[in-house]
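Notes on consecutive records. When two proteins share a document, each keeps its own sequence and its own token line. Never mix them. Below: protein one.
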Amino acid sequence: MTTASPIVHFFHLVKSFPGRIWRIFRAQLKGRSRWKQLLIIGLWMVGSFITTSLLATLVYGVLPVPLTPLMVIRSVEQWADGEKAVLKKDWVSMDEISIHLAPSVMCAEDQNFKDHWGFDLEAIQKALEHNKRSRRTRGASTISQQTAKNVFLWPHRSWLRKGLEIYFTGLIELVWTKRRIMTVYLNVVEFGPGIYGAEAAARHFFRKPADKLTRSEAATLAAVLPNPRKYSASRPGRYVTRRRDWVLRQMRMHGSGIYLDKAN
């Protein structure tokens, strides 16, 4: 009985916690003017958002991400178009992914991934200069930004989403290691219609587990990332082939320095 009492007491506190919070909230609103009530509600909403996002970041820092907003949106889009909803994913640890895949996506998407704190200012400046001269816009999102967007947000662009993306990017850079960011990224990134993560992509496109991917196959998967719904890793056209070869040259140029180790 004595050993069970603290456990029972703990669960009683957890059960009564929402009620206590609600009573505190109502007490703060009582007798206040309308604008003060709106201010208090706003502060509570901001506090709830920060607390929830921090808890989610801490949880995903150690546990697999079960589902992302993008996965749900893509499934709904397939269903709305009268297609069979496809959602293939299989979470694996970094040790179960080919050592060539992380450097491949770094070379393709974010060559300064190991050195920046979520944002590549040099790449942003180059993208801005390029976009002034060209009609074809160039992005500068880092792998950290893409991970934050994939895990917590929606794909459609807006100033609201960009602001939240900046917030979540800073949060995961603060809480997670670079290795954890890459692990999450390689498990949730879209490699094809309904194909998410390295393991599902390796089995779908190459009929093998992710840890058996060759250097060339890893570079091919990285090459389709700009538009995985348009390009195919199993049927690479001229663009994917040229980009794969460029990724392989970048990997040779960077050498072992582009590979992640367990200390990162």
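Protein two starts on the next line and is unrelated to protein one.
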Amino acid sequence: MSQVVPSEALQPVMRPVRKECPPGACDCQREALLECLHAPEARILWLTREEEKRLIERISRVTSYDELLHVGHLMHKNLGIRLHISPGPNEVRTVRGLQIQLAEQPGLCRKTRDTIPAAIRKCLENNLTIVYTLLDAHDLLGAAAQPPERS
């Protein structure tokens, strides 16, 4: 038997879109993305203030390097946000020596570009083992170096 589905059920579900920033406070180019809401680049507009708070809370619960990479992968998959964390060009003595950046993209508000890296930095300050694993992944602690073979 087949069921008849009402036409209202076939309508695409509209997700809430981030409210616009105050004039002159942001350079996110939100209006350009509103014209093509079904484009993959417009996914960033789904990051409403409430969703941003949930994301920040999720970042604060990260307890391992693999989990941090997973959150970064989910941010890219769901919102198109590219996260880049690497040791800075100078010596890394504290978490402040790490470069935590979000790739520039239309729709990503200036406040969000500051808030997400700050939450990651705070998470790293609370979990130094993640920092050590990150440094090790970039071969700063020498884990990737193979000891010379003895004959």
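For the record: The radius of gyration is 20 Å.
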